[in-house]
Design a protein that fits this description.
single chain; 3-stranded mixed β-sheet
Length: 292
C-alpha cells in the first residue's frame, strides 16, 4: 500500500495546481500556497489546504514540492518558508531553474537539512492534469522511497539521472528536451506563416508529409491551436517559454556552444509577448512572423 504523505506544493500555476490535485486524488495531504492566493483557492474544493504563507504551507510537510517561475523565485519562497521547514524533509524542486540556480538551491537545502531532489518535469497542461508527466529526477538512492509516491501521483514515468541533485543532471536533460520543444514550436509557427503568405492551404502541407519521417504529432497539435484560435488557456505560456529559451541559450554559451535556433526562438517568443500574446500558448510565437 502506498504511503500517504503530507506534501507542500509551493506554486499553483498551470503545472503546480494540476500536480496538487493529483496528489490529493492519490490520498496525500496537500498544503498549497501561491503568491497570488486566488490561483490557489480553487484547490480547496479538491481537498487541499490553502495556506496564507510559505511557512504555513510547509509546516509538518514530509515533502516540499516547488513549481515556481524560476530559480530566484524558488529560492525567495523557500527562504520565506525556512522557519517552518523540518530537517530531513525532502525537497522536490521542479521549477525549471537553470544549471547555476540548481546549485544555489541545493546549497540552501544543505543549510537547512533538507534532502534535495532536482526534479523538472516534461509535459504541459493536459499531461499534468492527467498525471501523465515525465518526471526527470536526480537525488540520493537511500531517500528515493520518500518521494516515489509523489512522482507516481503526478507522472506516468520517472527517469533517474543521477545521485546528486546539486549536480543538476535532471535539469540538464530538461534543458536539452526543451530546446527541441522550443525549436519545434518555432518551426510550426513559421511554416504556417509561410503557408499563409504564399497562399498554400496548410492541409496540403499536412497531407504531403503524412505518414512519413517529417510527420509528427506535435506539429498537428500546435498547428491546431493556431488554426482553431485555441491559444488560451495555454498548455505552456509564451512568457514561460521565453524564460526557458534564455536559460537554454545561457547554458550553451557557458559550455562553449552557440545555439542560433534557440536564440532566434527566444527573440520570436519575446516579440510575441510584446505583441500581447505573453499569456497565450507558446504556439502564439506564430504571430511574431507578422508586423504589429
Amino acid at each position: 500500500m502506498t504511503e500517504k504523505l503530507t506534501v507542500s506544493v509551493l506554486g499553483t500555476g498551470i503545472m503546480g495546481a494540476a500536480m496538487a490535485r493529483n496528489l490529493v486524488r492519490a490520498g496525500h495531504t496537500v498544503r498549497a500556497w501561491n503568491r497570488t492566493r486566488a490561483k490557489a483557492e480553487p484547490l480547496a474544493a479538491d481537498g487541499a489546504h490553502v495556506a496564507g504563507t510559505p511557512a504555513e504551507a510547509v509546516e509538518g510537510a514530509d515533502v516540499v514540492l516547488t513549481m515556481l517561475y524560476d530559480g530566484p523565485a524558488a529560492l525567495d519562497v523557500m527562504r520565506e518558508a525556512a522557519p517552518a521547514l523540518a530537517p530531513g524533509a525532502a525537497w522536490v524542486q521542479s521549477t525549471t531553474a537553470g544549471i547555476e540556480a540548481v546549485g544555489e538551491l541545493a546549497a540552501f537545502a544543505r543549510e537547512h537539512g533538507l534532502v534535495f531532489f532536482d526534479v523538472p518535469v516534461l509535459g504541459t497542461r493536459q499531461p499534468a492534469e492527467d498525471g501523465q508527466l515525465l518526471v526527470l529526477a536526480a537525488g540520493p538512492s537511500e531517500h528515493r522511497a520518500a518521494v516515489t509516491p509523489v512522482f507516481d501521483a503526478v507522472g506516468a514515468r520517472t527517469v533517474w539521472t543521477g545521485e546528486d541533485g546539486a549536480a543538476g543532471s535532471a535539469t540538464r536533460l530538461k534543458l536539452v528536451a526543451n530546446s527541441w520543444v522550443i525549436a519545434a514550436t518555432a518551426a510550426v509557427g513559421e511554416v504556417l506563416a509561410l503557408a499563409q503568405a504564399l497562399g498554400v492551404d496548410p492541409q496540403g502541407f499536412f497531407d504531403a508529409i503524412a505518414g512519413g519521417p517529417l510527420d509528427m504529432g506535435y506539429l498537428h497539435a500546435k498547428s491546431r491551436l493556431i488554426l482553431d484560435d485555441r491559444l488560451t488557456p495555454p498548455q505552456f505560456a509564451v512568457v514561460t517559454a521565453v524564460k526557458d529559451a534564455r536559460l537554454i541559450v545561457r547554458a550553451a554559451e557557458e559550455h562553449g556552444v552557440r545555439l542560433d535556433v534557440a536564440a532566434a526562438s527566444a527573440e520570436r517568443l519575446e516579440r510575441a509577448a510584446a505583441q500581447g500574446h505573453g499569456d497565450e500558448d507558446m504556439a502564439a510565437a506564430y504571430f511574431a512572423s507578422f508586423a504589429d
